[in-house]
What does this fold into?
Amino acid sequence: MDDKFQFTLGILSLSKLLFAASIILVAISLALFNYELRKQPECKLDLLSEVTDKCIIDSNLTSSIRIVVHSGGNIDTVNLKIPIDVHIEGATAKVSEKSVYPEASSTGGDGKYHSNLNYGIYNLPKNQISSITVAGTSDIEKFHLFEVKILTNPNEWLKKIFSALFLMTLFLSIYFRQKTFKKGILRSLPYVVYVVVAIGVFY
It folds into this structure.
């Protein structure tokens, strides 16, 4: 068998293995993200009962929190993103953010679905009791469930590591596969797709 043909087959096999590894890594990253959003909360705030509600957190126990909304709706609300207002107040510091939209979500269900919506991570004032107040909008009434979960000690680094490994193996898969093609304007297209995927992963 021609040495050049064997080399090409070897490169293609390596590319396929790297691509398979990238799929496994992104699956792990998504599983970690889903697990993080479903953690046991320190507080639960039902914004359907109270449009504005608050939770008291001791920052000596956690330096930051993640705000997640467990929502439930139907086909009419599946694409509806509800903003919330977040106000964090300690003895010496205050943080207020208006109209915060979810960054990403984990959804399950059928006609009536449930979603865990990630509204981001917030740092707490150090060494003091913090009051976290969350307020919703009138659009919340369109949902049958809109429960704010305050999660302590949020963990982002492990998910980011697997996301970075996914992007690295995906890039190498594209690189080695592209080495088997010497001509053609479409050779750069996979790299354009890669950039779009990378932006989607981290932003």
User: Anything to note?
Assistant: DSSP finds three helices and nine strands in the chain. Strands lie at 43-46, 52-58, 64-73, 84-89, 94-100, 104-109, 113-123, 129-135, 145-152.
